[in-house]
């Protein structure tokens, strides 16, 4: 088929239409391209195709120096100019608010997409998959089609210097554990590398099932990679619902630290932290700007994690109720508060619905997982007397659903939605929504 690509989706594919008007999701193309495409599947309402040749390149198409960008799932938009990526991300947020949330004023609500840092070398985290074929092991990253793991030695999305040992951290960790796997029957699920250019910390986290593990040998082969912390994260349970059974310090500090928004946060390997530190700082700035905290305010932070928003709010307000359901993150939050000498926070472990604070808040921030807010949490938030809510979201569709629920209840009005590009070269986008009491 010859197809003219119209726009990008919230996903790695682009959208085109056949001459008959049927929607086609096309992989390997960007908006503005004219491509020759091969049909992959043909459904009743839409088809899927793969671009086999670019007949007329889009004005937004650019070259990429990283040869693996076109085949790995971590950089599906690398062929698109960065300003076009920002415009496409804003368009996807507008589309979700209008289509899912039925917000007629979506175009007016959504601001231009913020670009807080470099479009390359922005990540503080690399994650390697581990596959074994007999005695041979490969550490790498998942291919775009999800069917294979490709060996990766250079990862230009990771925040590393141009030269020196730190520039080869992915290659060195991959080589060390690949070598160890040749002499030991390693059962590794994945390997996480965290690196902070602000604190100098480097952590290697080896995720494995519970059971025997060659601890001494693992430390020995990894000693040359420059890690300040080497840990083993032990998991148990079925493959689709693995749970952390414990974290074992193999060498070094047993955690890594990051400096953000004037605070130093220490984090254990299982705890969530945004992969883009500069982007996380922009989120903090937008949240504080939306909430305008006062020294006598009572603040609420739901889905608080290890304290990205809790710590700055505690410095500006009289008291913060923080709720987080994930045990390792709650422990990290309490440690971060103690090290920051902040004693005006009640850090509660549990689900936001069941552990919803009794205090009446003046300002609120929510940063839920991709599933968004439970319907009852929207109702509980709407019953609060708070003058402002900042909603941080990583999924435009669930954000749109939740904003529609807020509007239906009517206590809070959506004032603006600001996309923030924490994930250049991908379709993912973070947003900060301002809701003010009517």
UniProtKB/TrEMBL annotation:
UniProt source species: Parolsenella catena
Name of the protein this chain belongs to: TrmA family RNA methyltransferase
GO molecular function: rRNA (uridine-C5-)-methyltransferase activity
Annotated PROSITE patterns: SAM_MT_RNA_M5U, TRAM, TRMA_1, TRMA_2
Gene3D superfamilies, per database record: 2.40.50.1070, Nucleic acid-binding proteins, Vaccinia Virus protein VP39
Record-linked InterPro entries: MeTrfase_TrmA_AS, MeTrfase_TrmA_CS, NA-bd_OB-fold, SAM-dependent_MTases_sf, TRAM_dom, U5_MeTrfase_fam
Family: Belongs to the class I-like SAM-binding methyltransferase superfamily. RNA M5U methyltransferase family.
GO-annotated biological processes: rRNA base methylation
